[in-house]
Amino acid sequence: MANSQLLPDLEGFEEFFGIKVSTLGEDGGMVALGHHEPKRALAAFNAYAKSLGFTDLDDFSSFGGDWAKALDRIRTGQAVLRKQCEYAGRKDHETNCSECAQMSQFPWWMDCSPTVDDVDTFPVTNWEV
Ligand SMILES: [Zn+2]
Questions:
Q1: How many CB atoms lie within 10 A of CB 45?
Q2: Residue 127 Cα to ligand 1 middle (Å)
Q3: Which of 40, 42, 59, 118 could cysteine-pair with 80, CB 3.0–4.6 Å?
Q4: Confidence band (pLDDT; 50, 70, 90) for 1?
Q5: Is the dihedral of CA 12, 25, 81, 50 positive or negative?
Q6: Distance from residue 119's CA to the centre of ligand 1 (Å)
Q7: Which domain holds residue 96?
Q8: pTM of the model
């Protein structure tokens, strides 16, 4: 991949078939750094699910065993790393913001819906739930 040097080096990612993968959120989503062909991404997500102790990706994040349909859940896009919630810096931002507190508990916090104002975006491939 030509632009791989632009990808962040993040803690907790595992590499399968040359694709760096991690879980994203707590509802069965996954993310791969960079843009990848859907079948390759699906293979990497599946291998990652197995490494986590699941039978396969369907066991981790159910899609009814229809692997052709599973490809529809693969999306490429841009992401950005955040350290604070979107309200940080505003007058009405709470001092003890629970969202900011939650974000600070993780080594990184990835937002896969960056805005036009975000400059440090990088390409990702998502497994959507
Ligand atoms: Zn906040």
A1: 29
A2: 27
A3: 118
A4: very low
A5: positive
A6: 20
A7: 14-127
A8: 0.88
